[in-house]
């Protein structure tokens, strides 16, 4: 089955944010503020994209959605970041209602809409395990009869890490959270127009059968100063620097290079380090 990921990169949607703004201009000013964009790019380039480039099964599509108002220097940097990820399809969109826009883009990415497909969300500051796509497809194959009997089925990998990134490298804490955004996918029956963006991730199991795998660790949920989903929420208290052995584990499991992260964030003195 075709596997399609959706990644929003500072897309100025109408709705879809927990940090609200009075008007579109205020939202654009917030999204494209220099400090915020620099952090988003550093996380995208050193955390999110390496884990996708290293997938053991490279047969997937990634729809990357940005605003058609993205300033030219940022657009050039985004294109450069995606240059060596052939699975990526960059879509520049005007502001639209968030869920409607994302559903339309996912539908348009289906090469054979009359056949079933797999879909997943991918945030621009997260990483997935290098075998995420492989295991996602394998889980779907194992549950072929279940998938055939339902319009959609959620497939979730619930173990991973919270992590913060900065000049000191990676600080992380193990995490078990079913139906989190990272490493959560969904099958869609052929001919059906629902998408993974029809559902809030933490409620998806209320609307369809759901399969949840407790192991292995399958995601790294990134924490940054500008995470919309954790606005006003303290960071986990148990984050700690990785040991040298743990850095090698993160390198092998998620393609995260702690030395590259240190270099990318060198000179920063914010909360990320």
Question: How far from one another are the termini?
Answer: 40 Å
**SSE class:** alpha/beta
Biggest sheet strand order reads 3-2-1-4-9-6-10
Shape: globular
Following the backbone from N to C, one meets helices and strands in this order, namely EHHEHEHEEHHEEEEEEEHH
Radius of gyration: 18 Å
Mean pLDDT: 92
Number of beta-strand segments: 12
Q: How many helix segments?
A: 8
Approximately how much beta-strand content do the residues carry? 15-25%
Helix share of residues?
A: 25-40%
User: Quick one: biggest sheet?
Assistant: 7 strands, mixed
- Unreliable residue stretches: none
Can you characterise this structure?
The protein has 273 residues and is α/β, with parallel strands linked by helices. It is 32% helix and 24% strand. The chain is built from 8 helices and 12 strands. The strands form 2 sheets. The protein has a 7-stranded mixed beta sheet, with helices on both faces. A 5-stranded mixed beta sheet has the order 5-11-7-8-12. Strand 2, helix 3 and strand 3 (88-93) form a beta-alpha-beta unit. Helix 2 (34-53) packs parallel to helix 3 (72-82). The chain is globular, with a radius of gyration of 18 Å.
Descriptive labels:
12 strands, 8 helices, 24% strand, 273 residues, 5-stranded mixed sheet, 7-stranded mixed sheet, alpha/beta
Structure summarized in a few sentences:
With 273 residues, this protein is α/β, with parallel strands linked by helices. The protein has helices at 24-31, 34-53, 72-82, 98-109, 132-142, 144-149, 244-254, 258-264, and strands at 2-8, 61-67, 88-93, 117-121, 127-128, 152-157, 159-166, 169-176, 184-188, 210-213, 219-223, 240-241. The protein has a 7-stranded mixed beta sheet, sandwiched between helices. Strands 5-11-7-8-12 form a 5-stranded mixed beta sheet.
